[in-house]
Design brief:
Blueprint lengths: L18 H11 L8 E4 L9 H16 L3 E6 L9 H13 L9 E2 L4 H13 L3 E4 L3 H6 L18 H12 L9 E4 L14 E5 L13 E3 L1 H12 L3 E5 L6 H11 L7 E5 L11 H9 L14 H7 L3 H11 L10 H15 L1 E3 L1 E2 L2 E6 L7 E7 L9 E7 L1 E5 L19 E4 L4 E9 L5 E9 L16 E2 L1 E3 L4 E8 L25 E9 L11 E4 L3 E5 L9 E7 L3 H7 L1
Parallel strand pairs: 1-2, 2-3, 8-9, 10-23, 12-18, 16-19, 21-25
Antiparallel strand pairs: 4-5, 5-6, 6-7, 11-22, 12-15, 13-14, 15-20, 16-17, 17-18, 21-22, 23-24, 24-25
Helix pairs in contact: 2-11, 7-8, 11-12
This protein binds adenosine-5'-triphosphate and magnesium ion.
Adenosine-5'-triphosphate binds next to α2, β8 and α9.
Length: about 575
Amino acid sequence: MTDKNNTTENTEVQKKANFIDLQIEEDLKQGKNDNRVHTRFPPEPNGYLHIGHAKSICLNFGIGENFNGKTNLRFDDTNPSKEETEYVDSIMEDVRWLGFDWDNEPYFASDYFEKLHEFACKLISEGNAYIDDQNAETISNQKGTPTRPGIESPHRNRSAEESLDLFKRMTAGEFDEGACVLRAKIDMASPNMHMRDPIIYRIMKAHHHRTGDKWCVYPMYDFAHGQCDYWEGITHSICTLEFEVHRPLYDWFVNRLQETDYRPRQIEFARLNLTYTVMSKRKLLELVKDGHVNGWDDPRMPTISGLRRRGYTPESIRNFSDKIGVTKVNGMIDVTLLEHSVKEHLNKTAQRVMGVLNPLKVVITNYPENQSEELDAVNNPEDETMGKRKVPFSRELYIEREDFMEEPPRKFFRLGPGREVRLRYAYFITCNDVIKDENGEITELHCTYDPASKGGNSPDGRKVKATLHWVSVEHAVKSEVRLYDRLFSDENPDGHKEIDFKEFMNSDSLQVLPGCYIEPFVKDAKPLDHFQFERLGYFNLDPDSTTEKPVFNRTVQLRDSWAKAQQK
Ligand code: ATP
Ligand code: MG
């Protein structure tokens, strides 16, 4: 290790137009939608948002900003059994924290339950939908396969009046869950399985987080989504690739609204997958519910709230999102690119301090007892405007235990018996004595300092091979430091068919160090404040902190494996 600061080359991206931007530009050129651009971000409030959602947020809100358009936040709350207000609140907090805001109030698919129900009635009346009272298994068995057409339901050709009547009674709660469903009447022989008379309404006797017990029939996502887009005037409805095959259905419904000529347009892009990460709300919920992590905002989670608590900045996530770009091909992004993005941002912005995680006491025997002095230290070598601070120095210090070796091997240049090193911003010191306890464990080092080397340079020009960080025992703030490693030890924990993803959890993903010492500058830190602990990494103050016991999370180490891999 050297005392050189972690200067990663500036790789901030100039955002290039992606294929969606080009399509929007083309639509604008053709004067579509009265030259409006209006997108939406449509989360289902059934969990906390993750870094994959962040990509979608940056994309949708980014388009709103770049094209001088608008972006709605719309909660897709069509499945009452999994949705909760806690998730709604966390989603709004996360979108805002990323630096985006939506137009108007947030929308909810449930705002449209009435209109959707009316539209369903219209479809029935026009002979485009029917009530099927076969059970789910039978319906599924009749679906056919991509190469073999499905079988038509015996209820497919019942009269519109009969279906309408059944739908009304279904809505009034006369039937049990699963007794019947409303299906669109499209084509049981369509090569696209989604067009084989998809279910559009089902009975669910569940309490809804917004509409309470008003409804016992709920629209399916596929049925709700396009119409909500239409009613909100969305021009470009951007979703992930797996919805490409749903697009004909999306269009089929919207075309049957027949209110105006305007049509929202669905565009698909590849979802974000990250190495060493699971990215499905269902699986993340499992980790939370079963206590594998300490909540949705556990700093090891790929959730936006977890990343925030870990020390990620909104800028670093937005930059990451720009860097990975938008494509039509599913792939896997190396998680070190995400780590690189936060390092790049914190390198420019984080306050430097010195902190010792694994302390070894050093007594400067020729420094007067009961004396201390303040030395000048640079707050951020990347940004002069951040100024300087004073760091207290005294007779007793802590250095990092790993920075001393009693019998240093050839390439170890740090402290050893009889060796001289520099203490950053302070003095040269030489180690004279190694003090041990009865077990032979080193308890302290006795060193002398050279008063003439104040500030870190010797007047006679002699050189030292290492610069160590240190803190003054008397002045340091005792803290807990939490070191995080990847939650999974496998590159693709989700990619093993036979083996559950939890089998790949890294049992060493959290290491708690209760007795660390940080220079007094951090006394006034507020939760989530960022620091670079020199030579160690980036850290931030955890909200669990108290005045008596500050807690720091390690965001990332300084070593940049992404930048290294790029050089190779
Ligand atoms: P998950 O698969 O994690 O449960 P989801 O797709 O069910 O996520 P939604 O709440 O429906 O979650 O997603 C809201 C929006 O975020 C959708 O437009 C969806 O396409 C997008 N999104 C979800 N996951 C990703 C991802 N990994 N990459 C990019 N966009 C995503
Ligand atoms: Mg979903």
